[in-house]
């Protein structure tokens, strides 16, 4: 048996992004590993450490035993503390050590994916001990690593891959969350609609419709009388959704028509990453 067809998209997206990350960081000088990234408190080295650590855990490696320093201002929640262990333990690793461990982890993970024969519905142990399906774990992993590839590209001034396989996994994952954002988080009124018009390397138009009971659904048909229409480019959509930039900093790239208060509530609820 081999990887289930429904999982292949996520495996391909992961492979494409992790290879891109390796190409980005392998030639870096020692000092470049310390460059700041859009992730608060994390440098280029820290993001690569996170990538290594998460894939090691997906391989079943035991988590390192490590006590975090008390002065990490960006670590405020249990989720952040969990993630920071794999990062902080590598903070003094040299560039060659980081590249070597990344390459070795990628080799191991590729081998693991080639031999993966479990059903997508198999329950696996995810971050923080949370149980989830194998399909969801691989989908989330493809999204996470593409987002971090983009973080590194932004930090290093090397844009690209905004329409790579990981970008489309990210698009679908973010769209699946939109109905909750519009209804539960932003409180859109019953019998209303919110339209999202995204242009750029990845283009789409989606309408979130709120029924009489306040339940939201999403489709690709335009709405004749939406409560609000939000238009923005794909890169800005991603950066807002991943919490990489404040709305005020990209306000000139977001066009709103209709209910401005509802738009503000929706955009305030956009970030989906911890």
From TrEMBL:
Keywords: Isomerase
The UniProt record lists the keyword Isomerase: yes
GO molecular function: isomerase activity
InterPro entries in alphabetical order: DinB/YfiT-like, Maleyloyr_isom, MDMPI_C-term_domain, MDMPI_metal-binding
Domain Mycothiol-dependent maleylpyruvate isomerase metal-binding, chain residue ranges per copy: 15-153
Residues in MDMPI C-terminal domain copies: 171-264
Name of the protein: Maleylpyruvate isomerase family mycothiol-dependent enzyme
